[in-house]
Amino acid sequence: MPRPRIDLHTHSTASDGTDGPAELVAVAAAAGVDVLAITDHDTTAGWAAAAAALPTGMRLVRGAEFSCVSPTGRGDRDVAVHLLGYQFDPAHPAIAAEQARLRGERVERLHRMTEKMAADGYPVDSDAVFAQLPPGASAGRPHLAQALVAAGVVGSVTEAFATLLYNGSPYYVPKCDTPVREAIAMVRAAGGVAVFAHPFARKRGRIVEPSVIAELAAAGLTGVEVDHPDHAPEDRELLRALATETGLVVTGSSDYHGTNKTTPIAAETTAAESLERLLEEATGVELLGV
Ligand code: AMP
Ligand code: FE
Ligand code: FE
Ligand code: ZN
């Protein structure tokens, strides 16, 4: 049997992707993906539709990308980081409550960002931004970026981020994210496994020291995303060595967002042995499509 194609980090319209969950599954199937994880930001709203669309022969890992904060390991102020949680029980009270809180934060902060831009004369309003969101979906800067594209202010989502929506821009408003250790504990308590998403994505701003990842490994983190489109080759090697030292499982994924980003689905993939190690520890929900 040929090596399975495994992509463990993708987004749908339940957060800031542009394909609905069913369409995401179809796009993955067309690309020859054997194992797909749906990992929308701070929501599991896409799980049911993705599961219902699962074709024979494909497996679906159910997950989410948790918005977190972490110490950097340098003693400066905390930095935003993302944590991938897989196969956790979505009804676990702590997770359900924290995801609902974060989606509320996201709505609030996107309203504030939109209002700041409107006050400076940009032709955007909250109605146009929030009209794009299906029920239960997580609002994010890409929705504001799309509204800016539609209004002709910028030519693309990428340009919107580069010129107006980047971290630290005058229009940027932070949200109150979950301390990463609490998020790891929550995912584990709900029967899931946790993987540190794109820890060395430097173009997004400051990153954590390798020592922080090692400490999280001792605090219940199971894996680290090494092969990610935003990781430079030398950073991947550093992370791979760190994973070997600390016993963390190495994953690789596309972080596909449909047309909101240029990366195709399965542009980066995870080894079958890595997936097996993750699933061994995950008991929150059944793996679908076996
Ligand atoms: P938010 O979750 O609202 O803070 O927005 C961050 C999201 O915007 C990330 O999850 C990415 O999907 C997306 N994003 C960040 N930087 C860029 C970029 N340069 N181009 C396109 N999308 C981006
Ligand atoms: Fe995103
Ligand atoms: Fe992310
Ligand atoms: Zn992501």
Summarize the structure.
By secondary structure, the protein is α/β, with parallel strands linked by helices. It is 38% helix and 16% strand.
Account of the 3D structure:
By secondary structure, the chain is of the alpha/beta class. It folds into two domains: 6-100 and 176-289, Alpha-Beta Barrel (TIM Barrel), CATH 3.20.20; 108-165, DNA polymerase, domain 1 (Orthogonal Bundle). It is 38% helix and 16% strand. The chain contains ten helices and eight strands. Strands 1, 2, 3, 4, 5, 6, 7 and 8 form an eight-stranded mixed beta sheet that branches. β6, α8 and β7 (223-227) form a beta-alpha-beta unit. The radius of gyration is 18 Å and the shape is globular. Bound molecules: adenosine monophosphate, fe (iii) ion (2 copies) and zinc ion. Zinc ion binds at residues 9, 11, 65, 255.
Structural class: alpha/beta
Which small-molecule ligands are present, each listed once? adenosine monophosphate, fe (iii) ion, zinc ion
Question: Would you identify the CATH architecture of the largest domain?
Answer: Alpha-Beta Barrel
Q: Tell me the strand percentage band.
A: 15-25%
CATH superfamily of the largest domain: Metal-dependent hydrolases
Mean pLDDT across every amino acid position: 97
Quickly count the helices: 10
CATH topology of the largest domain: TIM Barrel
Principal-axes geometry comes out as: globular
Rounded to the nearest angstrom, the distance between the terminal CA atoms is 16 Å
Instruction: Supply the CATH class of the largest domain.
Output: Alpha Beta
Low-confidence stretches: none
